[in-house]
Design a protein that fits this description.
β1 and β2 form a beta hairpin. α4 runs parallel beside α6, α6 runs parallel beside α8 and α7 runs parallel beside α11. Helices cover 77% and strands 3% of the residues. It has eleven helices and four strands.
Length: 419
């Protein structure tokens, strides 16, 4: 009993720490100007809701417009004058990715503000519904897997902020400081799209995981409590409670799939654009670090950027895989083998009076199996622009491709005597 108590305390502590990290990340995104709404507690029921903040939104849009204009006016001419092909390609990719991401952020904040607020409130409402399913009170966000993934993401974000702020330590004049601050603001905003995508899919995975845990343990235990071969038939009230809970579970599963699909449709294009440009920029940077390392005095810092960029891609893919695999976990919870109706002695004792209850139980099992069958057509999938589904195989393919690329670059450097 003591070990179980310590395990529960440990689990609660991890989820509360994760929630604290999310709170810090939320304010960090507001400082960058990517998130321009606020989350407040409703007075009536003390629940969290997302609300518009018009003044703050237009302030963020104005700052982003000013800094994006500064990047175009001052950074673009500088990049055009770079003679080195690889350096110019790398800087061009950075500028294009930052400006395209700035455009995506402005479009979402202006054109899809209502959809975004509705999506955030749907997530918050879903977490409240899921927490009401079980008998135990749960706090925080997710479990151990969500904590580990979010911990690695936090390390990447801290290192990312350190690398960006280090560029402001020794400016030549105020104009250079303003230009570098604008580039930092726009570039971190571009990277924030990847972080938001990671958090969205991780939230979907956490929701599926909590509902799966309720069905696996508490709901099945309630079904087994109806198995009373020596005590007489179950009451209508007990069956009604189980039926209502089954309806709520199916409704929650459907709502998670709907919210996940809406999130994917809203952020699919910005994520794909930033992801493709980031992968391409990382390959060029890794080539520079391996082949032309003499041009960069701080090799450790550049290798850190390369590793951090690959980690961002892998963490995003892992979050997507976690959400998809958690959504498919429900198929393992079949009720057709439930032992409730297997006792012939029980049937003989209760006689005809049990017929109505057996029909109700059969209806519950049939309703659940129909829901599982519907998942084959309406399952949660993450498909990038209709090209391929993100899965565990994609992670393996990406890692193997990067290893092959590094091997090829190192061999090229050895053959040309550059290593």
């Amino acid at each position: 009993a003591t070990s179980i108590m310590f395990q529960r305390l440990k689990k609660v502590r991890l989820s509360i720490i994760t929630a604290g990290v999310l709170r810090i990340g939320f304010h960090y995104a507001r400082v960058i100007g990517v998130i321009c709404f606020g989350i407040e507690r409703r007075v009536s029921d003390d629940s969290l809701v997302a609300r518009k903040q018009h003044r703050f939104k237009w302030f963020c849009l104005s700052v982003r417009l000013v800094f994006s204009t500064a990047v175009i006016c001052f950074c673009a001419p500088y990049v055009a004058e770079i003679e080195d092909l690889y350096e110019r390609s790398l800087q061009c990719i950075r500028l294009v990715a930052s400006l395209l991401s700035a455009i995506c952020i402005v479009v979402v904040q202006i054109g899809y503000e209502k959809e975004l607020l509705r999506l955030v409130n749907s997530f918050l409402k879903l977490f409240r519904r899921v927490r009401r399913l079980g008998s135990q009170k749960r706090y925080g966000f997710g479990g151990k897997r969500e904590f580990v993934l979010l911990l690695f993401k936090s390390v990447c974000m801290v290192y990312e902020l350190y690398c960006e702020l280090s560029q402001l330590w020794d400016p030549e004049d105020y104009l250079s400081l303003f230009t570098m601050a604008g580039e930092l603001f726009v570039e971190i905003g571009a990277l924030m799209i990847l972080h938001i995508g990671f958090l969205g899919y991780l939230s979907i995975a956490a929701l599926y995981s909590e509902v799966n845990g309720f069905v696996r343990f508490e709901f099945r235990r309630q079904l087994r409590s109806l198995e009373r071969p020596g005590e007489g038939p179950v009451t209508r009230r007990q069956l009604r409670i189980v039926e209502c809970q089954l309806d709520e579970v199916i409704s929650v599963y459907d709502e998670i799939e709907r919210v996940g699909r809406s999130f994917h449709q809203l952020f699919e294009l910005p994520l794909v654009v930033v992801l493709m440009l980031k992968i391409f920029a990382t390959t060029v940077l890794s080539y520079e670090v391996i082949i032309r390392s003499e041009l960069y005095p701080s090799k450790a810092g550049l290798w850190g950027i390369v590793i951090k960029s690959f980690a961002d891609v892998i963490l995003l893919t892992l979050a997507v895989h976690e959400a998809v695999s958690s959504s498919r976990m429900v198929r393992q919870f079949s009720l057709e083998n439930s032992p409730i109706t297997d006792h012939k002695d029980w049937h003989m004792k209760v006689g005809f009076a049990i017929t109505t209850f057996l029909i109700s139980l059969t209806y519950l099992i049939f309703q659940w199996e129909m829901f599982l069958g519907r998942l084959n057509f309406f399952e949660f999938r993450v498909n990038l622009l209709g090209l391929f589904d993100v899965s565990n195989e994609v992670i393996v393919l990406f890692i193997s491709s990067m290893i092959t690329y590094f091997t090829y670059v190192v061999q090229y450097g050895l053959q040309t005597s550059r290593l």
